[in-house]
Every structure is written in C-alpha cells, then in structure tokens.
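Appendix C reproduces, verbatim, an entry submitted by the partner laboratory led by Prof. M.T., so that reviewers can inspect both the input and the predicted structure.
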Amino acid sequence: MSWSSIRSRSPMRRRSIVRTSTRKGSQLSWSTAASRSTMESCESRCTVVCFVAVATWRDAHRDPRRRRVRPAPREDGDRDGRAADGIAGDRCGALRRGRHRRSRGGPMTTRIREIDLHLEVPFTISRHTRTEKRVVLVELERDGRIARGEASPDPYFGESSESVRADLESALELLPDDPLALQELRLRLDERFPHGGAASCALDTLAHDRAAQSLGVPLYRMLGLDARRAPPTSFTIGLAEPEVMAERAAAAAERGFDILKVKLGAANDVALVRKIRERYRGRMTVDPNAAWDLRRAVRTIDSIVQYGIEFVEQPLPPQDLDGLAELHERSRLPIVVDESVVRATDVPKVAGIVNGINVKLQKCGGIAPALELIAAAHAHGLKVMLGCRAAESSVAIAAAAHIAPLVDWADLDGNLLVTDDPFVAVEVRQGRFSYSERTGLGAIPR
C-alpha cells in the first residue's frame, strides 16, 4: 500500500477539517481529519467494532436455540490455555497464592508472579543497555482454564516491576465474573488507569484471553479478524559496533526476516546504516529513540535516504511537536512516532505532522485501547505499526499478534530476543506469524 493510497477507515459523519500535502522528492503524501468530532466518532466506532463481535459471540454462546460455537471440552492434561499437570500450582510464586473469588461459574483463583527474561545479546538503544527484563504475569484460573496477561514495565513511563505488581494487586477486584463483560472491564480500567500502562495491559489481555477461551476460539477469530492479513514482523538490531550490527542483520536475514528495525542514536549513525547495507538487502527502518534534535535529524535523514530506508521512528523528543511539524516538511523519509502517542486522544495532536504511529499494548493499556488507537490513526490518514518492548514473553507478544491483521507493520520480536521465554503462543516462521487453533491467546507453558 502506498502512502498516498491511505484512506480513512472510519466514517466522518460530522464536519471536519481536512488537510492534504504532497511534496516532490519526498514520495510522501498525507491526509488528515483532525477535528474533535472526528475523534469522538472514531472512538465510538472502535468501541462498537470491538464489542459487537464479542456480543455476537455472547448471543451464540448463551442462547441454546442460536448456539453456533461450543466451548472447548475441559479434559485432564489439556494444555490448550488451561490448567494441566500442576501448571497452575507449584510454578506460581504467587503474591496471592490460592486467592479465591466466588462466582456463578465456580471460584476464580488469581495469581501474580514475576518472571526474569534474559536477552540473547545485550540490547542497546540511545538511552540505555539492557541484558535482562523482569515482567509481571497475572493469571486467573476458573473451571480448569487459565487466562493470562503480562505487564512489561518501562522506566521511561515511571514503571517498575514493583509498581506494576502493586497496581495489579490493587486492581484484581476490577475483573468481572462474566468472562464476556469486556466493555464493563474497559470502563473500570479507564477509571483506574486513565493513562493506560503495563498493569492495565495485563488485566485487559487476561480478560480477552478468558473471553475467547470461554467461547472456544482463538482471540483473532473472536474479534472477527483474518490472520492471513497480518504483516510480517521486523527483527530489531540494537546498537553495537558497525561490524557487529551488520553480522546480526545478516543472521536475521538467514532466519527469514525480510524487514529489520535498526536502532540509531550513536555518533556514527550513517556509518552504521552503510555497514549494515553491505550485508543486508531487505527492507529496513531506523529508530533513534528520540536521540536527535531537528538539525541532526534533517542531516542524518539526508545522508541515509540513499540506503532505502522505509521510515524513521521517533527521531525527536516526544513533546517536540513543533520540531516534528518542521521535520515533516523537510524530511525525505516518512516519520513514525512512538512515545509521542500513548492513547487515542493523542492522535489529533500528531495528525498532519507525522506519517504513522507505533501502537504498543503495554503503553496504551491493552487490546481494547489499542483497537481504539488503530481506528483513530486510520481515521486521520496515518499508517500504523504494532510494536513491543525490548523483552516480553510470548503471552504479551501473542496479545498484539492477534490484532496484527489490522495494521501496516508489525514489530513484535520481544520474545525472539530472549533465551528463556517460558511460553509458546503465536510462533514466527520465516518472519511471519503462525497462529494455532488453541483458544484465547493460545499461550501454553513450554
């Protein structure tokens, strides 16, 4: 799909301001609808799209005369996202081991545990180097099934494993008894976590996993999506010496990845890109993680455009919207932002001054807010990438992968960067997602 072919995917039923711009040499064009009424229409439509699908499943599941989908049978030893062979027992270093909540379908037991993930190689960006990551897993067991959600905290947003764990402990009570009451949970989470974040993401993901499991279908199918439309995922090359980055890029190509994200923000950015191009000829994007100022961004982009870069992600500090507007006018490459957009209400602020956004479930607060963000971006003529944090287990990656058919790019390699992912869910083969028929997220212990 070309940049000029992007069209709004939400109907604009009220008067809105539409701007268009095309510049020779940049190969960019964009159109935006940046009125508040459009934003409200987009949010409303997204909510309807998300929950009409679930309501349809609810009707079929509850009314015996219309039942089309039967929940998967629960058998001993079944590892289809459910408890088996003590999976939910001794392995859970739970903060609330054995906590029970009485409900119509039997007691619900919730557990929270921390998992240390170790990166295969040191992962360096312009801000820091990471060798391991502690994520927080929340699990809900009921009637023999286990639903899961994951929080991958980011210090950039003031999160830590301790703070996220405390947030989860205090918010477990928000989970409704009805596994299909996703809209009810969304309202509760928005009130408790108005800015989204990792704790909200964990609970929202768990709820979607539980809903799809209760209906006996994979999550993408519950949402009415076609898994075949998911884009390939990129593989990320962290900052290192030029020769090392080039070698890692070549190794990724041998594994079947035909698109790479290359971290920049070092003193020798142009030399890094040039060296990688000696070993790798596939698609490439670059991400300096807000390390450039406007002058450096223009200069670097002018130097690397010859190497066939697809877009530049978050070149400037997130709050520098004036700088992004000027860069958009001067850049010879498309600009995609990450930290500049957290929730759907941020989209109108960047519409017209960037070409796309990076949606991360851990950042916006889960699947439901991500669906709203994607709809808002498309309504404003922006392209969308689904991203992740540097280290996530397959639980978190699967949550994003199940909505990947809605976006233009996927950068969901957080589980591929670690050596000790404790789960299997949506696998990646030759750079593309391979969805199983397991229910919910499809996440099972290794």
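Confidence is low (pLDDT under 50) at residues 1-49, 55-103. Additional entries are available on request from the coordinating office.
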